[in-house]
Design a protein that fits this description.
The complex is a heterodimer. Chain A is an all-alpha fold. Helices cover 85% and strands 0% of the residues of chain A. In chain A, 43% of the residues are buried. Chain B has one domain. The chains are: A mainly alpha, B mainly alpha.
């Protein structure tokens, strides 16, 4: 059983290495060479999906730990429910704040998982499309980095707020890249700046809502998560 | 009336991936036109979609994408007129229209995909490759409506106790927060208990099998083979350069020969495959009914 586990871990490492070192550059080069019409939107879609695979694989090694799976599922469901609840207010979404707080208390890998799952689950309500992988990646990476910075973020509220603002802005900027690639087929800096400016009010609302939700959630959810971890030994 | 819903999830996924792959990467105008028409026909015949609100969304989007390209891209050799000193070229206008056809087509395919591939089918496919992940997604999907119900219960209980029932804004926010906090701890506890139950029933042990309601029948097999053969024909034709088409710097003349015609016909059949299945089943239904 143990040997089997080790073997599976090795396979995962090899797959991740192949994806990062060979497949992603190959997709970019082939995409740019083969398709002369500059189909950057679809190429970046492929790259985004590929870059989520290593995370999916690290997730798989937890098959035995049902507690973590259930915890992850309910956090993703809560943030998706929050997104649905606040859907009437454009830009005012608790998802990023929720992902950051979860990552602060559960670590980078769980942070990525909660972020990516929130995107998938809530898009079953908002509609799946080519944007789903981008949202998965954007929220996932925000959670991953928050997990890496968990100690300083827990210690200082100011840092947490700054990270919330950066996270909210980063999400908008990543999604704007997608909008531009999608509408134009290639990356056009002029169009990017235009779409960034036109989305500015939403970006600001988004950053502000992040601060609000972070300040409210970090204490409450932090307490609950710490308690749950102690009670059930996750 | 929705015959396509009966097709095995794996076969349907193969079909959607193939048709979207061609629709995303081959920008020859005929291919894009068939992709859009096929997706639209599928949408209409399956009754999958609210036509009025859909038109209100897709038509403005189509126009917007078609306009953006010529305004921001000044490639091409045939200027139509000048805007703020920048040429608006014929090539950019036509490429913009093709781009709009492509994007609308892909969105419609995504829409069909979402309607046909319901979450249970997606989880069935994912369950083989990434069991832990798909289990988590299916748990989360089940939690969302459960949380919504519980949230209503908690807030009704709070109101029943006479808490936070005044009209003042701060009071309402404090009430909402309290409900939310109660929700979070309730849902996490609930999830942990689920996991304990799973462990007690032997989740993750060796030799456990999963129940699946889907069966891969001969019809699914024929459908998949047909899809893959058509895909091979289209990709082969594309690789051999039968349907090469350039928009910049000058629009290439579209010459129709035997090779390119074969590729176009293959893709047209592919794009209209679900439509044809639905029509066939509808006719069959009608025929049987009239005999009674």
């Amino acid at each position: 059983m143990n040997e089997n586990e080790n073997k599976r871990a090795d396979v995962r490492k090899i797959i991740s290495a192949v994806i990062c070192c060979i497949l992603v550059p190959a997709v970019i080069v082939c995409g740019a060479e083969l398709f002369k019409d500059k189909q950057y939107a679809w190429i970046s879609l492929c790259v985004t999906i590929l870059s989520c695979i290593p995370f999916a694989l690290t997730f798989e090694k937890r098959t035995a730990k049902t507690g973590e799976l259930a915890l992850m599922a309910s956090l993703a469901a809560l943030s998706a429910a929050g997104r649905i609840l606040f859907a009437p207010l454009p830009g005012f979404k608790p998802v990023t704040a929720f992902v950051i707080v979860s990552a602060m208390y559960l670590g980078p890998e769980s942070g990525f998982a909660v972020g990516a799952l929130s995107a998938v689950v809530s898009n079953f309500y908002f509609g799946q499309g080519p944007w789903t992988p981008f949202q998965m990646f954007a929220w996932g990476i925000i959670g991953f980095i928050a997990g890496l910075l968990s100690e300083p973020l827990k210690r200082s509220k100011v840092l947490m707020i700054i990270y919330g603002i950066i996270g909210g802005a980063a999400f908008s900027l990543i999604m704007d890249i997608w909008v531009v690639l999608w509408a134009d087929g290639e990356f056009n800096p002029g169009l990017y700046i235009t779409s960034m400016l036109s989305a500015l009010p939403f970006t600001i609302i988004y950053a502000v809502s992040n601060i609000v939700f972070l300040l409210i959630l970090s204490v409450t959810i932090g307490k609950i998560l710490t308690r749950i971890k102690k009670k059930y030994g996750v | 009336m929705k015959a396509f819903d009966e097709i095995d999830p794996v076969a349907a996924a193969v079909y959607f991936v193939s048709v979207m792959l061609v629709g995303m990467f081959i920008s020859a105008p005929m291919i894009q036109l068939f992709s859009l028409l096929g997706a639209a026909a599928f949408c209409l015949i399956g009754g999958r979609g609210e036509i009025k609100s859909d038109l209100g969304f897709y038509i403005p989007m189509f126009i917007m994408i078609a306009l953006i390209n010529p305004l921001f891209s000044h490639n091409g050799v045939t200027p139509l007129f000048f805007l703020n000193g920048n040429p608006v070229t014929l090539e950019a206008v036509i490429y913009g229209i093709v781009l709009a056809v492509m994007m609308t087509g892909i969105l419609l395919w995504c829409r069909n995909f979402t309607k046909v591939m319901t979450s249970d089918k997606l989880l069935y496919i994912m369950g083989r490759a990434v069991p832990a992940l798909s289990l988590t997604v299916s748990m989360a999907l089940r939690f969302v409506p459960m949380f919504k119900r519980q949230m209503k219960k908690v807030s009704a209980a709070q109101k029943g106790m006479g808490l936070y029932s005044s009209k003042s804004y701060t009071d309402r926010i404090r009430g909402a927060l309290r409900v939310f906090a109660a929700m979070v701890s309730w849902s996490l506890e609930n999830a942990m208990e689920t996991s304990c139950a799973m462990k007690a029933r032997g989740y993750g042990l060796k030799g456990r099998t999963n129940f699946a309601i889907f069966r891969f029948t001969l019809r699914d097999c024929i459908f998949t083979v047909t899809t893959l053969l058509l895909l091979a024909a289209v990709i082969g034709g594309y690789a051999l350069g039968y349907i090469d088409f350039y928009y910049y710097p000058r629009i290439s003349a579209a010459d129709i020969n035997a090779g390119s015609a074969a590729v176009y016909v293959s893709f047209a059949v592919m794009a209209f495959l679900p439509f044809m299945i639905e029509v066939k089943e509808a006719l069959k239904w009608k025929y049987f009914v009239s005999k009674i």
